[in-house]
Amino acid sequence: MKYKVLALLVLMSSHSLAAHLEAPLSSCHVAEQRVLADQTGGNVTDVGQAHIAARADVLIEDINSLRMSRKISKAAADKMTQRVKEIRLQGDKFVAQQGFLSAGEKASFDREFDGMAGRICN
After folding, report:
1. Measured in whole angstroms, how far is the alpha carbon of residue 83 from the centre of its chain?
2. Can you give the pTM of this predicted structure?
3. CB distance 73 to 105 below 8 Å
4. pLDDT digits 0-9 by tens, 47-70
5. Which site from 4, 71, 96, 117 is most exposed, i.e. has the minimal number of CB atoms within 10 Å?
């Protein structure tokens, strides 16, 4: 009987430890995401556009990870992914129209990505 209790305690402790050791999502490191840079090339011609594209890719990857681990529903994942894609497309449109992504537009997109990261990281 003592061994069963001991084994149960060890099992519960290891599960708790594993939960704490689980790697956080990349999107949760907002400060690092804010300075994330990607290279231009192909359809990406502006550094601000490259930044938004890189952040979008990270968010989509994290959303997919949460969906695969069943921490969010398919509907929620689809809705968030669609919004990330819309933001990226808006950035692409601004660059096509103006030739660049303004600092204000980039900041606005960053704020929205920060909000999404806050929702998936809590």
Report:
1. 12
2. 0.76
3. no
4. 899 999 999 999 999 999 999 999
5. 4
